[in-house]
Write a structure and sequence with these properties.
Blueprint (H helix, E strand, L loop, with lengths): L2 H17 L4 H10 L12 H10 L5 E4 L5 H8 L5 E5 L2 H13 L6 E5 L13 E7 L7 H14 E11 L5 H7 L8 E4 L2 E5 L3 H8 L4 E8 L9 E7 L2
Parallel strand pairs: 1-2, 1-4, 2-3, 4-5
Antiparallel strand pairs: 5-9, 6-7, 8-9
């Protein structure tokens, strides 16, 4: 990995670890509030919830860049028995391990804190499905391309791969927001890479080098008026 790319990645890893930080008092308070069905409300949108359900019957699933594990928990609570959930944030994995116990799905989810080389160590043709939410569009492009390539390698034939990502900032939106995006499509906020800005067509061209595009849905997070975020359903043939 080039030095400049490595620096961007390390800053991102540190940033997201701080985002997912949660002290023991907060964890204890959350434990007291759990009733058992909160997993149904964890997805940022109904379409993302449905995406999780669509692969919950797969034998072996990878949740790559799982964060605190909302997708993994939805799939596990819906019957998936073998989920590998990985993230570079130690704090995210720590919270996912708390959730696993609270929702009684400890045996279903193997939560792992990883580094940027983890995918390369996975066996080929291992997974039946992969979900990757808001990961490849917040990384340096060279790393994103490598992740897509490795996911192709580690998935079986006929596997379903789901990528969800942020919205695309066209020229008009950039002008309104005053967003400064470099030639590589990178948007930085306070020195942290927050968006790899590529259009639906650009991502489609990247994905279809490896996978067949089944469908592209647009969706909104709760509270957003327009469905501009992207949800790519892909198939490895």
């Amino acid at each position: 990995m080039e030095k400049e790319v490595k620096e961007k990645y390390d800053k991102l890893a540190s940033f997201w670890d701080s985002v997912f930080a949660c002290d023991e008092n907060e964890i204890e308070e959350y434990k007291k509030s759990i009733k058992g069905d909160e997993w149904k409300e964890m997805a940022p949108s109904k379409k993302l919830f449905d995406a999780c359900l669509s692969i919950a019957n797969s034998k072996k699933v990878l949740d790559y860049g799982c964060g605190q594990g909302w997708a993994s928990l939805i799939m596990a609570c819906s019957g998936c028995i073998d989920i590998t959930s990985v993230d570079v944030s130690k704090n995210a994995i720590k919270m996912l391990n708390v959730y696993k116990k609270l929702f009684n799905v400890e045996k279903n989810i193997n939560a792992i804190n990883i580094d940027d080389q983890w995918l390369k160590g996975e066996d080929s043709d291992k997974y039946d499905a992969v979900i990757c939410s808001n990961v490849i569009d917040v990384l340096p492009f060279s790393i994103s391309k490598e992740i897509i390539k490795e996911i192709y390698r580690i998935t079986k034939a006929n596997s379903t791969i789901i990528f969800s990502m942020n919205y695309y900032l066209d020229e008009e939106m950039r002008a309104k927001k005053g967003s400064d995006i470099n030639e590589e499509g990178e948007l930085f906020v306070d020195g942290i890479l927050r968006l790899l800005n590529k259009s639906d067509e650009e991502w489609t061209n990247i994905f279809t080098k490896y996978f067949k595009l089944i469908k592209l849905e647009h969706f909104a997070w709760l509270g957003e008026k327009e469905e501009r975020r992207r949800l790519f359903y892909l198939k490895k043939e």
